[in-house]
Amino acid sequence: MSPAPLLLLLLLLLILSTTIAAAAGQLRPGYYLETCPKAELIVRDVIKKAMIREPRNAASVMRLQFHDCFVNGCDASLLLDDTPNMLGEKLSLSNINSLRSYEVIDEVKEELEKACPETVSCADIVVMAARDAVSLTGGPHWEVKLGREDSLTASQEDSDNIMPSPRANASSLIDLFDKFNLSIKDLVALSGSHSIGKGRCFSIMFRTIQPIRHRPARPSL
Ligand code: HEM
Ligand SMILES: *[C@@H]1O[C@H](CO)[C@@H](O)[C@H](O)[C@H]1NC(C)=O
Ligand SMILES: *[C@@H]1O[C@H](CO)[C@@H](O)[C@H](O)[C@H]1NC(C)=O
After folding, report:
1. Which GO terms of type biological process are on file (predicted)?
2. Class of domain 38-161
3. Is 144 annotated as a binding residue?
4. What's the Cα-to-Cα distance from 75 to each of 43, 145, 213, rounded to whole Å?
5. How far is the CA of 185 from the centre of ligand 2 (A)?
6. Which of 62, 73, 92, 129 could pair with 159 in a Cys bridge, judged by C-beta atoms 3.0 to 4.6 Å apart?
7. Strand, helix or coil at 35?
8. Is the pTM of this model over 0.90?
9. Which of 99-108 are b and which e, b meaning 16 or more Cβ less than 10 Å from the residue's Cβ?
């Protein structure tokens, strides 16, 4: 068989995948360099002020990215309030009375709307804000890819089903992270984020009633 049909197919696939990538809006660093050149500076500035006002904002903002991205991707669905026909994620089991600092994201959005109206997505704001919270706390700094679109819907049910309970055991956390292509090493490193911020006693106290088994003392010689 002549290789022509195969080549044609390959060419078609190539065209298809590039159009899909363009349609899906391939994420990239510097996405707002032309449309909103100060975007990243503005985000950093608002996060810095929020942390000066209340240091815990760093932890709470960082956590928002985790809770947004794990439920149907980084699409800011987390920020949507309930409507008469949609139960959003704010009141899901893991989020109700627990997630906070939504107003910090609102402040960033407000500043960005002043500088470049209707340009920077809330989904990108959450990702930039979490990065800045970490780096301004003295942690690592990383470049973020941008160009996300905001979701128009949210799902309390998906949040309830996906977000791990504080009672989750190691193997279920490993399986969950694996679904996002995150390794055990990633799980451990990301769990290190709990070295800042606060948790309610209610969330963790059941772990303290596990009996601690001591090794019997060695008979001394
Ligand atoms: C691995 C599975 C995880 C579980 C089971 C878990 C569970 C929890 C729980 C129970 C709390 C306390 C909530 C409360 O009492 O209101 C908490 C707080 C927090 N979590 Fe996680 N978490 C996980 C992963 C992560 C990840 C991946 C991040 C970020 C990279 C993160 C960031 C935080 C932060 C910063 C806080 C404190 C927030 C604040 O002070 O407002 N967690 N987490
Ligand atoms: C971990 O939790 C899952 C889900 O609750 C359960 O099915 C599994 O048996 C548990 N594994 C261990 C090792 O306890
Ligand atoms: C994980 O990696 C596989 C193989 O590269 C890919 O097909 C899948 O979409 C990835 N999943 C996520 C959630 O990124």
Report:
1. hydrogen peroxide catabolic process; response to oxidative stress
2. mainly alpha
3. no
4. 17, 13, 45
5. 20
6. 92
7. coil
8. no
9. bbbeebbebb
Q: Which amino acid is at 217?
A: A
Ligand nearest to the CA of 173: 1
Cα dihedral 31, 35, 38, 41 sign: negative
**Calpha distance 64→159 (Å, rounded):** 13
Is 214 assigned a catalytic role?
no
Which of 67, 100, 109, 148 is flagged as catalytic?
A: 67
Summarised one tens digit per residue, pLDDT across range 28-51 is 999 999 999 999 999 999 999 999
Closest C-alpha residue for ligand 1 atom 14: 199
- Give the domain ranges of the chain: 38-161, 164-196
Handedness of CA 203, 205, 208, 209 (dihedral sign): negative
Which ligand 3 atom minimizes the distance to the CA of 179? 13
Q: 63 near 70, Cβ under 8 Å? A: no
| pLDDT-based confidence at residue 204 (cuts at 50, 70, 90) | confident
Q: Which amino acid appears at position 155 of this protein?
A: S
